[in-house]
Automatic annotation (TrEMBL):
CDD domains per UniProt: carb_red_PTCR-like_SDR_c
Domain of life: Eukaryota
SUPFAM superfamilies, alphabetized: NAD(P)-binding Rossmann-fold domains (SSF51735)
Keyword NADP found: yes
Entry-linked Pfam families: adh_short (PF00106)
Keyword Secreted in annotation: no
EC number: 1.1.1.184
Family classification: Belongs to the short-chain dehydrogenases/reductases (SDR) family.
Organism listed in the record: Cyprinus carpio
Protein name, as recorded: carbonyl reductase (NADPH)
GO molecular function: carbonyl reductase (NADPH) activity
Keywords from the UniProt entry: NADP, Oxidoreductase
Amino acid sequence: MSKRVAVVTGANKGIGLAIVKGLCTAGFNGDILLTARNEKLGQDAVAGLKSEGCKNVIFHQLDICDQGSSLKLKKFLEEKYGGLDVLINNAGMAFKHSATEPFGEQAEVTMRTNFWGTLWVCHALLPILRPSARVVNVSSFVSKKSLDQCSPELQAKFRNKDLPEEELCLLMGEFVQAAQTGDHTGQGWPNTAYGTTKIGVTVLSRIQARVLTETRPGDGILLNACCPGWVRTDMAGPNATKSPEEGAETPVYLATLPEGAKEPHGQLVWDKTVQEW
């Protein structure tokens, strides 16, 4: 039996780092790959965790916006471990409220990281999931808030249990185009780039869970989206209500659901509780 392995994206600081630490504390039996775009920051984070007693943490470079980078990681996992047991797609970004970039640019950049980057990692790594694997896509409660601000037509599409991945991708592209022409609200979109990208992540998770159920029904794989809450990170700022460790609780809970568990699956989970979509 190959050694178990978990991958956490965007893990050199903030919630991602706290998730890696949480997996260690929860006694994850295997290696934990802390991935980050910047090699030095990633190596420093691993060194810090090792000094705290997390001996099973390894660094691997990953830029989620570079499809080749995801494929390199897949090759490494196949060669060294023969598969993957836990994937936590945590990497993401948001512009500050004070950002001066045009909204269309903010929409394109945020979508490329939060939605397309997550999708590319999943396309590379979901095919090598082992039975009883756990996948957690870090979304946000803002996805639900933003969904409620969409036109009824868009809401119906995003709530459609049978929505194909291709159609979701087209919708995310349509939002960016509408944002670039300044007509996104006229077309029924909310006035938030971050929130719309996280609608994409939540709906993508529902689609991926459905596909896994259809294509690997007996394998016991569980895939969910989650909201860590409002967490004190570089992204959310110092006034947020939760510490990174508190923000990591729900992702770690979903990543360590016991073997044989049937649910949650394909859900948006917040404070370990399934939210209505």
